[in-house]
Every structure is written in C-alpha cells, then in structure tokens.
From TrEMBL:
PROSITE patterns: HD (PS51831), HD_GYP (PS51832). This is HD-GYP domain-containing protein. The chain crosses the membrane at residues 71-98, 152-172, 219-237. It comes from Streptomyces marokkonensis. Residues 242-437 form the HD-GYP domain. SUPFAM superfamilies: HD-domain/PDEase-like.
Amino acid sequence: MEALPARVRAYVAGVILLALLCPVPPPGLPSPGIPPDLRVPWWPAVLLAAVYAGCERLARSRLVAAPHPGATFYPVLLAGAFLLPPHAAALVALPGALLLPVEQRPYLARRLWRAGRLVVAVWAAGRVHAAAGGPDTVADCDMPGALATAGAAVLVFCLVLTLLDGGVPAPASGVRPRGRQAAALAAWRRQCLRSLAPLTVHGLAGLMMALLWRSAYGPVAALLVLLPMGVSWWAFAQYHRERAAHQATIRALVQAVDIKDGYTRGHSERVGRASMMIARELGLDDERVEVLRFAGILHDVGKLGVPTRLLTKNGPLTPEERRVIELHPEYGHEMVRGISFLGEARAAVLHHHERLDGSGYPYGLAGGQIPESARVVAVADAFDAMTSTRSYSRARPVPVALEELRRCAGTHFDPRMVGALVRAIGRAGWHPAVTADDDRSATLPGPAAPVTGRPGARR
C-alpha cells in the first residue's frame, strides 16, 4: 500500500478492518432471523465459496472474458446472503476476491480492497435479509415474501458497494469544496442508479439458487441457474469488447489529429468532457451523453484533411486559406459517416460550426435547422477554444469565457446549451490541462483574444 496516498491507505485499512469483523458470530443471543443454533452448516459456505471463485476465474478466462477488469459475478454471493447467516455469508467472497489477479499496482492493496468491500456488502445484505425474515420465506418457498426480503437485501448490497467506492478519497483538484461535494454526490447517485438494475438481475438469480437449494431438488439444481447467467455474462462481455473497439477507433482518430495539430493537443478530449457536462445538465439519458462525448472528441477529425501549414500558421489567414480550413467539418463527416455506432455524433461533426443566426458554415443553417448535438458541441468547442492558449491567442479566464458565451447566446450559440454549461461549471468547476507549449503562459494575465478569428477553433 506504499504507492497509495496516506488518506487512501487509511480508508482502505478501515474498510479491511471492518471486513475482518464481519465473519465474527454475534455474541449471546442470535440476531433477528438467525436460527438459535449458531452452528453454521459450513459445507454450503465452502461450496458456494468454491463456486464463486470458479465462476470468477472462468469469467476472466479467454473463453468468456469479463466485460471489464472490475466486473464481479454476484449471484453466488447473493445466494450466500439468502442461504447462510450473515457472518458465514461474508466468507463466501474471500477466496475468489483474494486469489484472482489484479491488473494494476499495488497488487496486494487492490486484492485486499476488493475482498474487503465484497465481504462488508455481503454481510450487510445478509443482515438485512435475516432481519426481514428472509430465511423463513426461503425455507417455506414463499415467493412474495422471498422477493420482498431479497429486494431489500439487494438494495442494501448496491448501496454499500457504491458508498464504499464513492468514499475513496480523491486527490485535491483545486475545485471549491462545495463543488467537489456536489460533483461527488452526483457521481455517486449516477453510479448507484446504474448499478441497481444489473444487481437486481443478479439478485433474482441468487434468490432462484437459494429457493432451489432449499427445495427437494437440492444444490445441484441450484447450481444449474448459473448456466443462463454465464451465457448472459458472455453476451455482455461481447458487447463490451465491441465498445472497447469503438473507443480504440476514436482514440486512434484523435491521436492522429493531435499529432497533426500540436497546438490543439488535448482540445478534443476537453470538448468531449464539456459536451458531456452540458448533456448531463440537460438531463439526457446515459446513451445520449456518451454519444455527445464522442461528438465532442471527434468534432475536429476533419483537420486530418487540412494542410498542416495552415493549422500551425502564426499570422492571419488569407481568404483562400480560410476557405480550405472551413472544409474540415465536411472532411470529418466523410471520415466518420460509415461508423454506425456514432449515431447523431456524425451530425455534430458536420455542423458544429453553424451559428444560430445562419452565419456559420459549411451550410449556413440557422435556428432549429442545426441538430441539437451540433449546438452542444459548438458551445463546448467555443468554451475550450477561449480558455486554451493557442499560437494566436492567450487563454481567457473561465468567467470571462462564460460571459462571452452569454453575450453570443441567441446569435451564435443556443442559449439553452450555454446556460447548461454555465450551471455545470458553476457547480463542478473547470480545470483542464494547459495546451500551450509553455504551461506557464496560461496562468499569465494577458489581453483577451478577439471574438472573431480562425475558423479552426470556434471563437
């Protein structure tokens, strides 16, 4: 744990200490819902622990391939929470969590963290299930009661996991404490809602395992439930492989643009980030937020078709040179129009330099004729262009850039998108990496760049 910051080490140590206390049987009288005989049938616990470890190992094999390195096969853990007393169910996660390899350093700390958070979450789910009378509903095969108690346990399992993950201390970023707290709370809420649906499916599979285990069919029938879950896991892994291929395609295109135009290195990622902030502020669903992030990242991919000497020219552009640069949205659209997963991002690549008053390019669209995705990216692009140091202008302070966007709202930019960016930055702040060759130049005061300028970077 030496490579971790002190605050993170303390937090991880606290979670591990809490996990060590979870397997301790309750002293004295049993807790509500736990049978008076505290002699736990350990063979189900050992069997479930072995099955969980085997499922995790198989999920990370080349045959299946987990959707991502942190993915976990939860049905067996939740089945343990439904079948066993909490202090015994907590041990089901240990072998798989400790023995599986980790991808990054520090290896030991990551293994212990993975085991600790799972032990605490399973124990908490088992306690809620036992307190709600879940063991009796499972033993009696009372489906309404079993579904209700299992649902409460799954909800607690999800909350504990997201609370533990969200509690990891983040490094100081310069954002105001109130802004950091609001951003952390919003991120935790999104993560919790995103995790609840898949965990509910895993919980239903775990409950089915528990009911079959307690029925006349026994543990063999219970383990058969894992077959369809394994197939669905494999299908989900294929989706994530395809998604990873999409990300690799986008990264390759962006890196090519960054190599060609060194002054805008990092610009694409920051526009993608700002586009995502606007989309979330507008309340768009996660899928559209991701598409708009792609749109922001790829908006300048057409610069690959523009001569490098024009992109890096220090002096003013001639009318002919300006016309050549103004072709980059069409070049970009030609490059990405065959990539089906980009969806409406392709329209943003083509139209992100259109203006609400019709004075933009390449087609002079106005008002509602401009696609929503292009209006989002136009604001994000203009904001980063103003707050980044270029060869022909110094970075403006963020408040000055936001005020300029407000001034141009209604003529150049959609006021709704401008307002969304202003609110998002007011809550979370904006601290991008400096794009100038000299990092210090962005912190030096200087005259503001003119609103009108090079067409390669929206004003």
